[in-house]
## 1
Amino acid sequence: MDHQALTQGVRPGSVTTGHEIIILICYLMREIGRPVTYEQLSQALMSQQLVNYFEFADAMSSLEKSGHILADGEHRWSLSPLGEQTAATFQSTLPLAVRERAVGSLEKILTLLKRQQENQVFIEKREDGYTVTLTITDIGSDLLSVSIFMPTREECEAIRRRFLNDPTYVYKGVFALLTGDTATVGDLLPSKEDLFE
């Protein structure tokens, strides 16, 4: 295959050989330290333009065949002891910036997934617009459930993103406004990180 085809869509300074991609995947899985799906790994690496999709797919297939990664019953992948050893031995051959971008990207994806599991957003079409219902769940009763009318679907999506990006900020704001108790909730400062970028 043409070398340009293998590096298409890859940021300069990223990894381009199959060997480097194998090491990067092992390193990333070791740093995260929990099972991840194929989609989560590919999204994390490709959103940062760290690898080419075809090279990523080949590397994952090689890692599975060689026993570096193992699948569970829920289609999530974990490192085997061989994969752990590969990451520990060869991680320093990868550029530090590549390692940091890969880990940061996957952490954002997993954080957003967790927030989507712990918090609910329902968008319901109405005759004259939409109702967005935001819910922060807990083990027992919900901590917060609030609905708001919005005229367009785009505005609903913006609210959904802001809410899932920082549900604690929304909770603190609603709590402070309704109770007048700003001392309990502390400073109302939004998260500087955007999980949707």
Note: DSSP finds nine helices and six strands in the chain.
## 2
Amino acid sequence: MVKVGSGLEARDAFTAKQVDAACVWAPDDEDCIKAVKGSKVLTSTAQANSLVTDGLIAKKEWLDENKETAKIIVEAIL
């Protein structure tokens, strides 16, 4: 396992052949397939629509004090 800070870093590590697999967002998945000969999508939400690849977790106290910030973050992701 290699910890990275973002999906873009995961994409870059995969396309640089520093890792054998990576969890990335679309359209980075297409970039990975094009960049690394013989690579393929292992699974995706198109294939497994109940697949959960991340989660957002917050303490109740933080959420109570930062409702608008939480809303902005969720809307940006969705």
Note: The chain has a mean pLDDT of 84.
## 3
Amino acid sequence: MIDSHAHLGALDPATLHPVLMRAVSAGVSAIINIATDEQTISHGQKLLIELHNKATPAIFLAAATTPHDVAKDGETFFPIVKQAVEKKTLIAIGETGLDYHYLHSPKETQILYLQKYLDLAHWAQLPVIIHCRDAFQDLFSITDAREFKVPMLIHCFTG
């Protein structure tokens, strides 16, 4: 089994090892750790180094600004994600997308960053992890209108 969406950076470091051991006991062979800000991407990159070749599930890293946070963090976090892509420390871009249910960020800003992350994923030939809540019409319009397609995993789903 692969856990395709975990936020290991949200865990207290003292509880991380027992959580990973329970995952191994349950048959989880890999975990995709989602970073959504500068602190969690830094933590995720440290985890990749610390846990390399240890008896834990394989840990992989994905990163992007969530639709909730793009108005606040998009401008500062996008270059950090781009740098991680260039260093080849990410296996996916995400979670990014659209969330019109809560509207913590304006729709226009969410759309802008979704497009930026889709472009980055295409350039890097990486899949995208999509968070989409109450915004499927816009998500499909945006992705259908692009000249290129990228593989996607839809993580938050209200369809």
Note: Strands lie at 2-6, 30-35, 58-63, 92-99, 128-133, 152-157.
